[in-house]
Amino acid sequence: MTKSYGEGEARSQVLRGVSFDVDPGEFVALVGQSGSGKSTLLNIIGGLDHPDDGEVEVLGVDTIKASDSRKARLRNESIGFVFQAFNLLDHLTCLDNVTIPASFAHGVKNVEQRGKDALARVGLERFGGRYPGELSGGQKQRVAIARALFGAPSLLLCDEPTGNLDSETGKEVIDFFRELNEKDDVTLVIVTHERRVSSIAKRVIAMRDGMLVETSDEALAATGAGPS
Ligand code: ADP
Ligand code: MG
After folding, report:
1. Looking at the domain assignment, is residue 57 inside a domain?
2. Which of 35-39, 123-127, 133-137, 207-211 has the lowest mean pLDDT?
3. Are residues 130 and 188 in the same domain?
4. Which of 70, 90, 95, 160 makes a 20 to 30 Å CA pair with 141?
5. What distance in Å separates the CA atoms of residue 32 and residue 133, rounded to the nearest whole number?
């Protein structure tokens, strides 16, 4: 696929012909310099953005040809997002933040119980009634992960999920992702600068000059490029 932003002189081609496959159950780290198009690519995979040209198939759905409602269903039922900045709503309790996906979908049953279960999965079962402002950064990110897991997604897309966390807290979050991948078979694509993530990812893909190249944690270490 290709993707550019802007018009005329300001036009910049961010993706110049990106092509790759991720198999179910994979744990992929996506690395590359700031501005190289990692978030753009992740958003396209998740159906939040669209390429100028090319084809995208996610969990059997052609997300370019699919209707908006089909795409919304795919996002609600099968894909979870985790962002660097947590993106929690401060005026809602943690439980209400976690169950937000249900408000975009029709006919979701047992919303409250499922929200509590999702919080329990990230070790925050007693935090449902609290507000995000009362939590540490690591706890906020765990609430955001619980929200991402609410719909029991088979694919989790994470955009620099440890970027706002101290290294100890980041490690806990990464260990949790690893467990999700190994025990629950959740497919993971994680944009990261952290060597810790790329060292446990089974595959490392680097974005360079609008193209993707398969690499490895060892290669990144040898060149000094990519995550540190
Ligand atoms: P990364 O996540 O690797 O830092 P991004 O995908 O966020 O990179 O951005 C890639 C390039 O596209 C950057 O130069 C950025 O400024 C530009 N860009 C991203 N989103 C937009 C947008 N909505 N409008 C214009 N330019 C954008
Ligand atoms: Mg980014």
Report:
1. yes
2. 207-211
3. no
4. 70
5. 32
**36 CB less than 6 Å from ligand 1?**
yes
Residue nearest ligand 1's atom 11 by CA: 35
* Dist CA 37 CA 15 (whole Å): 7
pLDDT in tens, 8-63: 899 999 999 999 999 999 999 999 999 999 999 999 999 889 999 999 999 999 99
Residue 173 Cα to ligand 2 midpoint, Å, equals 19
C-alpha to C-alpha distance for 141 and 154, rounded to whole angstroms: 19
Q: Nearest ligand to the C-alpha of residue 30? A: 1
174, pLDDT greater than 70: yes
- Residue 29: give the domain boundaries: 2-78+153-223
Q: Which residue has a Cα nearest atom 24 of ligand 1?
A: 5
What are 159's strand-pairing partners?
83, 191
Say whether both 124 and 182 belong to one domain.
Answer: no
Please calculate the CA angle 94-77-125 and round it to the nearest 5 degrees.
25
Q: What is the dihedral of CA 99, 25, 181, 213, to 10 degrees?
A: -100
Which residue in the block uniquely carries the two structure tokens 């991948």?
Answer: 181
Q: What is the pTM of this model?
A: 0.92
Domain end point (choices 131, 151, 171): 151
Cβ-proximal residues to 106 (8 Å cutoff; 6+ apart), any chain:
none
* Distance, CA of 151 to CA of 2 (rounded, Å): 30
Tell whether 72 and 165 lie within a shared domain.
yes
Residues 100 and 147 occupy one common structural domain = yes
Q: Is residue 43 part of a domain?
A: yes
Split into its structural domains, the chain has a count of 2
